[in-house]
Design a protein that fits this description.
Length: 602
């Protein structure tokens, strides 16, 4: 009942035909998007594109324009209902469900009014016709929500203090643990909410200044990578690939359900579905970790944050980052649940898709050392990880050593990109001091920062599971910040950790959503200002400066806000970890005879 009314966003509303003669077009229309087939080609048009087109041209009259405005109002009502349902889930208060149901009924009536305005009272006129197949369903969903009494307010789950025990129950397997999660009503609700949020933010992010082909450009590229092999082109030898070797795993997996090699549309749907499944799997890991760390109630709030992370939700269906992100988070889950071999293999596979997961290994070693096992438990997992890496990498090296090396060398020699913190700092330095040192020294700064963080963990911090999560996140965020590239899709990697770390107060939750919103807005707001359709932020004509016409440039202001948010998150993370330092320093200042007493008191 909490999210049933939100399913109206996924209901096909109309089957329609418009135009006359050779210009006749047919299509199917959902609330968020419509698919239209015509002689001139097929089109996918979002509600936001229609609204923007009408409002930007200042059209104040005309039935088509008015119908678009009414239709857009209906969609906004359904989005508001989705937000109310999310609030109901968060607050565990059923009164919000009634309000969401009322908005759903109003949206159904708005859809009907929009159809009448455009096609006439009987939905058939000179401009075309429509069959409102989904409007009765939407109205029934809303009326059902209004007439159904969900019962008393759902009581919150019993709180549980932070626990250092992350082992599975006696006799419980990993598969059984996640199977149990999949039968949890709260997890089912969060899963459906994740899909709904992805649909809303993706189609709302389709604006007229960015074509659909530009938004889904990576998917077209993945399709080319997948099909080029069948035409005799060998990866790394016949063409350049910017990612490690196991990048081709999701690329080829998505080709299996596609109808044919030439069907790029079917491939896009298949690939997006695969990434959404990976994102749901990450949600399960986040929920499970939070349940062990903070208790069931906080676990649900962590899951709710992750499910409503709009910035990451936009990029999940159109990039391959969701799979290596899941493998990295799953690796952390396995490690904390004492499955070291599977953990290291999962991190290795993730690393061989994208390099971020390599940051896990040194922290795993330090964690094992702090908990008394050290090399004894990590020797076998690391050896198997090395063997797996060799099995994957060595054949590619034999096929084309130059192509293999080019993948890695290109990332060291590439130019700094405009959306990175390195470029931002060089812009300020050039403006004030007329020098730009950060591009040259960024790699040195990155290595130094990571080593300092690792030493801090090794020398001063405790061996608690939650501390490991914090340190892996800090290392990951530091890498993203000091790297020459801060691609918007990197938010997919950060969001699972953000949900775990920023769940404990309203201010932190606000910081979570600020990070999501600023990344969600970055590409459409700065498109053709900083981002180019084919340049990916590397076109010299799109460089920004501190001042523009004697005032701070819009791009500079935007990136100041962006980096302030993420630096604030890094500060929160470091501050949380530092709270454990006094106890550690106290141990170090005491003699060996007092260590046992202090440990006992803790």
């Amino acid at each position: 009942m909490f999210i049933l009314t939100s399913l109206a966003l996924l209901v096909p509303v109309n089957i329609y035909s418009t135009g006359t003669g050779a210009w006749t077009a047919y299509g199917i229309q959902w609330g968020l998007v419509r698919y239209q087939h015509a002689v001139i080609g097929d089109h996918l048009v979002s509600f936001s594109t229609d609204l923007y087109s009408v409002l930007s041209q200042g059209i104040a009259s005309g039935s088509d324009a008015f119908a678009v405005l009414v239709w857009g109002g209906a969609v906004i009502l359904l989005i508001a209902a989705l937000i109310l349902n999310a609030v109901a889930l968060w607050q565990r208060e059923d009164s919000y469900v009634k309000r969401a149901a009322g908005l759903t009924v109003a949206a159904g009536l708005f859809f009907l009014i929009a159809d009448i305005v455009r096609f006439g009272l009987f939905l058939h006129g000179g401009t075309g016709w429509c069959l409102p197949i989904g409007i009765p369903t939407i109205l029934l969903l809303g009326i059902w929500g209004l007439r159904t009494d969900p019962g008393v307010t759902i009581p919150p789950a019993a709180p549980r203090p932070v626990s250092s025990d992350t082992s599975l129950k006696d006799g419980e397997t990993v598969a059984a643990h996640f199977k149990e999660l999949l039968h949890d009503r709260e997890v089912i609700s969060l899963t459906l909410l994740t899909v709904l949020v992805m649909a809303v933010v993706f189609f709302a992010g389709m604006l007229p200044n960015i074509s659909f082909e530009t938004i889904t450009g990576d998917l077209y590229l993945y399709h080319w990578y997948a099909t080029a092999v069948f035409y005799g082109h060998v990866p790394y030898a016949g063409y350049y690939v910017p990612y490690p070797q196991l990048f081709f795993v999701p690329v080829f997996l998505a080709l299996i359900p596609a109808f044919s090699l030439e069907n790029a549309t079917g491939y896009m749907f298949s690939f997006s579905s695969l990434m959404i499944l990976c994102d749901i799997a990450t949600l399960l890991c986040v929920y499970s970790l939070a349940e062990r760390f903070f208790g069931k109630e906080k676990a649900f709030l962590c899951g709710l944050l992750y499910a409503t992370g709009i910035g990451a939700a936009f990029f999940v269906p159109i990039t391959f980052d969701a799979l290596p992100t899941f493998l990295m988070v799953f690796s952390l889950w396995l490690f904390l649940f004492r499955r070291q071999v599977a953990s290291c293999l999962s991190a290795t596979v993730s690393m061989l898709m994208k390099w971020f997961a390599a940051l896990c290994f040194p922290y795993y070693l330090v964690y094992a050392h702090k908990n008394g096992s050290g090399a004894r438990t990590m020797k076998k997992p690391l050896l198997l990880s090395v063997l797996l890496t060799a099995v994957v990498v060595v054949p590619v090296m034999f096929v084309s050593m130059s192509g293999f090396l080019k993948t890695y060398q290109s990332h060291f020699t590439r130019s700094v990109e405009i959306h990175s913190l390195v470029y931002y700092l060089d812009t300020i330095s050039s403006f004030i001091f007329h020098v730009s040192p950060f591009d040259t020294w960024s790699f040195v700064l990155l290595v130094a920062g990571e080593l300092v963080l690792l030493y801090w963990y090794f020398r001063y911090l405790d061996g608690q599971p939650l501390t490991l999560v914090y340190l892996v996140f800090a290392a990951l965020l530091l890498f993203v910040l000091i790297n020459k590239v801060f691609s918007a899709c990197y938010l997919i990697w950060l969001t699972p950790f953000l949900a775990l770390i920023l769940v404990h107060s309203r201010r932190r939750i606000l910081l979570f959503y600020l990070a999501q919103v600023v990344i969600y807005l970055e590409t459409p707001v700065l498109f053709k200002i900083v981002y180019g359709p084919l340049t990916f932020g590397a076109d010299p004509r799109l460089y920004y400066a501190v001042l523009d016409n004697s005032l701070p440039s819009f791009s500079f202001i935007f990136y100041t806000v962006k980096f302030a948010v993420f630096l604030a998150i890094l500060w929160v993370c470091i501050r949380d970890v530092k709270e454990q330092e006094p106890n550690i320093f106290a141990l170090q200042r005491c003699g060996d005879d007092k260590v046992g007493i202090l440990l006992g008191s803790r």
